[in-house]
Amino acid sequence: MNTTLLIMAAGIGSRFGTGIKQLEPVDDANHIIMDYSIHDAIEAGFNHVVFIIRKDIEKEFKEVIGDRIASICSSHNVTVDYAFQDINDIPGTLPEGRTKPWGTGQAVLAAKNVIDTPFIVINADDYYGKEGFKAVHEYLVNGGKSCMAGFVLKNTLSDNGGVTRGICKMDEQNNLTEVVETKNIVKTADGAEADGVAVDMNSLVSMNMWGLPPLIFWTCWRRDSKSSSRKKYRVIR
């Protein structure tokens, strides 16, 4: 079965150079986090890569990242496509005065014309590890419809300050019911806390790794065609 890796990279700055976190080398061979994600996804079985970027950074993105990765993918019989996130590309009219980019849902919706397979969605600047890609791929190729890879909070905390994580709430069947964005989660002597409130270290959190069917594009479009002014689109089951 064909499956797609969708990488949300539209937040990369328009000038490529120092200080852009998605492009910072993370090893002595000057690999960036996206290199690791793509390698792990291909190893898990994904055979199509789609980058979501902005049109204004297309040339620089391909020069710095895209062409190199496309060459690597080609050697593994993996195809590469691009989708472009545009604030005006919504099922409705852009609210007057809106300049801030939309959220994950609208970014994913931008890929509606280049994806017709089950797919996984990730951020460009997060490291996920191999197991998440393997688990989501296995779920999708075995008939799963939609899922989120949950990560144990204690494994995602930083020694260098607070982090923002989406703490998951689930029903009795482990179906996701809510993701609560929680900011400034820091390690403490007894575990973790956010703004002085204790947080369960064993909570499952979202790192924005979702497994979805292509039907989600139609669902997002219909769901938000009458509510495009809300803060964020949600790609959740």
Please specify the SSE layout and strand pairing:
Layout: E1 4-8, H1 33-44, E2 48-53, H2 58-74, E3 79-84, H3 104-109, E4 119-123, H4 130-141, E5 147-152, E6 163-170, E7 176-187, E8 192-194, E9 197-199, E10 204-212, H5 215-224
Parallel strand pairs: 1-2, 1-4, 2-3
Antiparallel strand pairs: 4-10, 5-10, 6-7, 6-10, 7-8, 8-9
Could you characterize the architecture of this molecule?
The chain is of the alpha/beta class. 24% of the residues lie in helices and 27% in strands. The protein has helices at residues 33-44, 58-74, 104-109, 130-141, 215-224, and strands at 4-8, 48-53, 79-84, 119-123, 147-152, 163-170, 176-187, 192-194, 197-199, 204-212. Strands 1, 2, 3, 4, 5, 6, 7, 8, 9 and 10 form a ten-stranded mixed sheet that branches. The longest helix is centred in the N-terminal third of the chain and has 17 residues, at 58-74. The chain is globular, with a radius of gyration of 18 Å. The two termini are 23 Å apart. Mean pLDDT is 85; it is low at 224-237.
Task: Jot down its keywords.
globular; 10-stranded mixed beta sheet; 5 helices; 237 residues; alpha/beta; disordered C terminus; single chain; 27% strand
Q: Report the sheet with the most strands, covering strand number, pairing sense and barrel closure.
A: 10 strands, mixed
Residue windows where pLDDT falls under 50 for at least 5 positions: 224-237
Structural class by secondary-structure content: alpha/beta
What kind of oligomer do you see?
Answer: single chain
- DSSP summary, beta strand count: 10
Q: Based on CA inertia axes, which overall geometry fits?
A: globular
Mean pLDDT: 85
Radius of gyration: 18 Å
Number of helices: 5
Helix percentage range: 10-25%
Span between termini: 23 Å
